[in-house]
Amino acid sequence: MLKKTFIIQLFIAAKVSASFAQIPQNDTLKLSLRQAETLFLKNNLQLIAQHYNIGIAETQIITAKVFPNPDFSISTGFYNPDRHRFFDYSNGQDEFAGNLSQLFTTAGKRNKNIMIANIGVEQAKFQFFDLLRTLKSTLRNDFFTLYFQQQSLKVYNLEITTLQKLFKAYQEQNLKGNISEKDVLAIQSQLYTLQAELEGLQVNIDNVIGQLQLLIGAKPGIYITTDYTYNLDGKDILIKIPYQKLLDSAYANRFDLRLAKSTVELNDLNLKFQKSLAVPDFNLSMGYDRRGSYLVNFNSLGIEFNLPFFNRNQGGIKQAQLNIDQAKVQLQNQQNQVDNDISVSYLAASRFEKLNNSFDPNFKGNFNHLIEEVVKNYEMRNIGLIEFLYLYDSYKVNAIQINNIQLNRVASLEQLNYVTGTSFFNQQ
User: Which CATH topology does 2-65+108-278+313-420 take?
Assistant: First the structure.
């Protein structure tokens, strides 16, 4: 009886000590979701780099607004063969000529270029905000994944710590002949299985932490823990937001859809610009010639433009028309994608909500109490070692399964936020 009591004391001590996650105490960063998002907006290099594209696009407006520079030329006599002199500026020989010309665009080409550049800025902003939507969704999903996986880590740490101490105690008792070798092997086998499962879970956690480090700009090697409390049990979240409102929000706030719409506008404008290229631009010029014309001090005024007999930009106009048709098809495809995203995500969220809410809220607490009763019955020899290990492993399986179900529910709500472009279900 003393032997059994000693083992149970070890078990209870292990349960209390392992109820806290075994995480490194040095270089540990504990984050709430709000803190993680703040660091993300401040430090994410991918987002910062994408934001530069807006400034780059704005410079195209400056380029489109400026007028072409005037052209200036001047010439003079280099060598006088009659007098065998270079740069002969003697009386009656001082010949030089100059010309100043300016290009003028026609058919509103400059204004159309400005409008095209403005749409380019708009598209750069859409691309930035769509990247922000995607990265923020990744950040939040990683945060929740890390939280629930670290909750599962606690369960593994509890059982492994307990079995390690039980294994050591059973080894000692086996050497004394008080416990059979098969009981020692049963504990050892279960311990190795749990350690292998824990290793796989830890690899997943390390990968998630690595991605979070990159997203928030944290230094590599820092261990991240989450400050979050799950409180969705028994709540009907989806009923608060009508399905049509989700769809309307996606049409208004999905920047990838707005980008597709602006591409149609851009191609419409480009067609007008290509048609304007069929209209010739012209050069106005003014010239002066000291002695090279039919009279001294000849002043001239001229105009130059090409005659659109052959090239009237037929290929550019046809290509622009095809680009419009292509952009409209791509827009329709993007709209279909939005509709499908909302439908699939809403269905998944509904199923996870129904599954989660079908559980008794007291189930987890009752199951924890059951494990305590298992310990007591094991102490009183009402159950054997194999049954004890089976029941305790069942506790582990159910605890991890509950964590996964809760994660799936939160992730499905986050997916609805992502596909609608709106934080309807903003868990903090």
Answer: Outer membrane efflux proteins (OEP) (1.20.1600)
